[in-house]
Specification:
two-stranded parallel ribbon, alpha/beta, 11 helices, 249 residues, six-stranded parallel β-sheet
C-alpha cells in the first residue's frame, strides 16, 4: 500500500497538501518539491466568528460567571485527555474555573471513570453539539484546548485549531514541540504551547490566562486575525483555482 501511494506521488502532476510539514515529509520521501502545493483547509469565517460568551450554552450548563476551558472533538488514544482531567483536578480549588469536554458517548463514559478516579468534579462531560450550535459553543469558552500525546504524528494539523482561532478564543495547545500544530499556534500569536502529557504545565497555562483577562482578549484577537488571513474560504478557493489553471496549461 505504501509503495502504491509513493508511485502515485511520483506520477502526479501536482500534489496538494493541507500543511507545510506534509511538504517536508514528502520531500524527504523523494518527491520533487516543485510538484507540491500547500493549501490549508478553510473555515467559514462568517459562520465561525467571535460572539458574546454569555450565551445560551453557558446558561444551559450553569457556566455563568465561570472561566470556561473547553475541549470539543475526538476523545481517542491520540488525544491523551487524562492530562486535561489531571490538570482540572489540580485546579478544582479555583471554583471559578470550569472544564467542559464534549465528545462521543462511549468515549465520555470512559473519561467519566478517569474524572472519578482523580475526583475532578469541575469537569463537565457533554455530547458534541449540532453544527448550527457550534459558533455559540465555541464562543462560550474563555480558552479552547488542543491536546495530543507525545507520540502523535507531528505533521498533521488538527482541524480544531483553525476553528478555535476563527472563533476569537485563545488556544492552549498541549502538543509536541515540533510539527504543524505547535508551529501554527505560535505563528498565529493566538495561543500558548505547553509540553504534551504534562498536566502541571497545562494547569499553569490555564491559571496564567485566568489571572490575565487582557492577555486572553489579545490572544483571541490575534488568533481571529490570523484565521482571516490564512483560513478564509475565498483565499483557499482562489489558491485551488490557480492550481487548476496551472495544471490545465
Amino acid at each position: 500500500m505504501v509503495v502504491l501511494l509513493f508511485l502515485v506521488y511520483l506520477k502526479a502532476t501536482k500534489i496538494s497538501v493541507i500543511a507545510e510539514d506534509f511538504v517536508t515529509k514528502l520531500v524527504e520521501q523523494g518527491v520533487n518539491k516543485n510538484r507540491i502545493v500547500c493549501i490549508p483547509n478553510w473555515v467559514d469565517l462568517n459562520f465561525i466568528r467571535p460572539l458574546d460568551k454569555n450565551n445560551f450554552f453557558r446558561e444551559e450548563h450553569n457556566l455563568q460567571d465561570k472561566f470556561v476551558v473547553v475541549y470539543s472533538g475526538n476523545i481517542a488514544l491520540t488525544q491523551g485527555l487524562e492530562t486535561v482531567v489531571k490538570a482540572a483536578a489540580s485546579l478544582k480549588e479555583k471554583l471559578e474555573i470550569a472544564f467542559v469536554i464534549l465528545g462521543e458517548e462511549k468515549a465520555r463514559q470512559k473519561l467519566q471513570e478517569c474524572c472519578n478516579n482523580y475526583q475532578a468534579d469541575n469537569v463537565t462531560l457533554l455530547p458534541l453539539v449540532a453544527r448550527e450550535k457550534l459558533p455559540e459553543m465555541l464562543s462560550s469558552a474563555d480558552v479552547g484546548l488542543v491536546v495530543q500525546k507525545k507520540t502523535v504524528t507531528v505533521f498533521n494539523l488538527p482541524s480544531k485549531i483553525p476553528v478555535i482561532l476563527a472563533s476569537g478564543r485563545p488556544i492552549i495547545a498541549s502538543v509536541p514541540d515540533t510539527g504543524t500544530a505547535m508551529r501554527v499556534v505560535k505563528e498565529s500569536g493566538g495561543g500558548i504551547v505547553v509540553t504534551p502529557e504534562d498536566s502541571q504545565a497545562l494547569a499553569e497555562a490555564i491559571l496564567e490566562l485566568y489571572e490575565n483577562p487582557e492577555k486572553v482578549e489579545e490572544l483571541g484577537k490575534q488568533g481571529r486575525k490570523y484565521a482571516e488571513e490564512n483560513f478564509g474560504s475565498k483565499t483557499t478557493l482562489d489558491n485551488y483555482e490557480a492550481l487548476f489553471a496551472e495544471i490545465l496549461k
